[in-house]
Amino acid sequence: MSRLAALFAVLATTLALAPAAHAEKGVMLGIGEQHATMFDDPLFTWLGMKTARIVVPWDVMRMESDRERLRVWLDKTRLLGVQPLVAFGRSWDRRGHKQLPTLSQYRNAFMRFQEMHWDVDTFIPWNEPNHPKQPTWKKPEMAGRFYNAIRAECPACTIVAGDVLDTPGMTRYTERYRRVLKEEPKVWGMHNYGDAYGRKSTATRQMLRITKGELWLTETGGVVRRPRGRVGVSMKRRLRDAAGATRYVLRLAVALPRVTRVYLYQWREVSTAPWDSALLKANGRLRPAFRVAAQFLRRDVSSAPRALPLSAGASASAASSPRRCKSSDLRYPFQPGGPKYFGVFRLRIVAGGCTLARSIARRWMKRFEDEIEQGRVKLPRRVGGFRFVSLPVRQAQTYKLRGRRGDTTIRFLYRVPNG
């Protein structure tokens, strides 16, 4: 037998035995998912994944809606004891979609992130920097400097270098990226969809050759649907192929000693999205790839709980969006019989009901008016377990309030005579 044939035989034997050995080797299996509703799903808790990844814009702290979405996601990881891996990427603002931030802008944005989420310590400086749609595509040196920026601000953090996609030019891009780094990273990352779907290890092994330290497969798995994907292939065949790709990449990870983490993408299908590599269908039914992941984690699928129903999932998704609540009964006129110009306006609640929002707003208003009657203009800071802060507002005689209790956020304007 030739030396090459012998090597292939050894690799085949290793991969065949890998499922029984993954616990000893210690490959951690996580999930990449943008929606916080995953953490509410009893299937997720049952599966026992201890790490999850989210991709956010580099300027995530700029927009209130982005900040709130991230806060809800991270709060749920804290509640479940799941380690978050936060990956930064291009801005979600259309005006800055293709704009590369300066090093100063990027560093300042990261400092704002740290001020709010000081307990998060595992980061990817830029998600898929070698993707053609990323502003870092032809600027690997700048992507590398973003790594340096995070390291300067967080010496103790785990920073995943690279995080490149296994496309042509990956090696050259990574080498240029590496040259500007001020340290030898302990962890590198890559998305090896090509290897997973092609049942090969070319790009993954190449990444191992040109780097040192651990390698995390920060996004991988089997793709069911993608833009300009396969046409005329049945869904049954696609699901079977996706499960096969997932099984292969997990076995590959076990066979390669320096690969220590794998993040599959994603949890549940979004039926309207052009990309689908989810473990669950939109209605919560288990896909074959979920069964592969469960087997890898030594879970008996026959004992799995039911997934979060679609209606509950929709409710949970809606819970992360502001809900408008009636507040006309919380207003009063300057004089009896006059128009109700004063009181509570624009009442909103996130992750809660309007009954709660009106109750808390009414209690806040009463406490504030009690203070005014005693000659003091003092804004209540805590009402019903909610911690309130006053936000900037341009309108005269108006206060803009935000109260938080756990995942629930209440916002409203309070207009007061001679305020």
Please describe the topology of this protein.
Blueprint: H1 3-17, H2 22-25, E1 28-32, H3 42-47, E2 51-57, H4 64-80, E3 83-89, H5 103-116, E4 122-124, H6 140-153, E5 158-165, H7 170-179, E6 187-191, H8 193-198, H9 202-210, E7 214-220, H10 235-255, E8 259-265, H11 288-296, H12 310-319, E9 323-324, E10 331-332, E11 342-350, H13 354-373, E12 382-383, E13 386-391, E14 398-405, E15 408-415
Parallel strand pairs: 1-2, 1-8, 2-3, 3-4, 4-5, 5-6, 6-7, 7-8
Antiparallel strand pairs: 9-11, 10-11, 11-15, 12-13, 13-14, 14-15
Helix pairs in contact: 1-10, 5-6, 6-7, 7-9, 10-11
What does this structure look like?
It is built from 13 helices and 15 strands. It has helices spanning 3-17, 22-25, 42-47, 64-80, 103-116, 140-153, 170-179, 193-198, 202-210, 235-255, 288-296, 310-319, 354-373; strands spanning 28-32, 51-57, 83-89, 122-124, 158-165, 187-191, 214-220, 259-265, 323-324, 331-332, 342-350, 382-383, 386-391, 398-405, 408-415. The strands form two sheets. It has an eight-stranded parallel beta barrel with strand order 1-2-3-4-5-6-7-8, surrounded by five helices. Strands 9, 10, 11, 12, 13, 14 and 15 form a seven-stranded antiparallel beta sheet that branches. The radius of gyration is 25 Å and the shape is globular. The chain starts with a helix and ends with a strand.
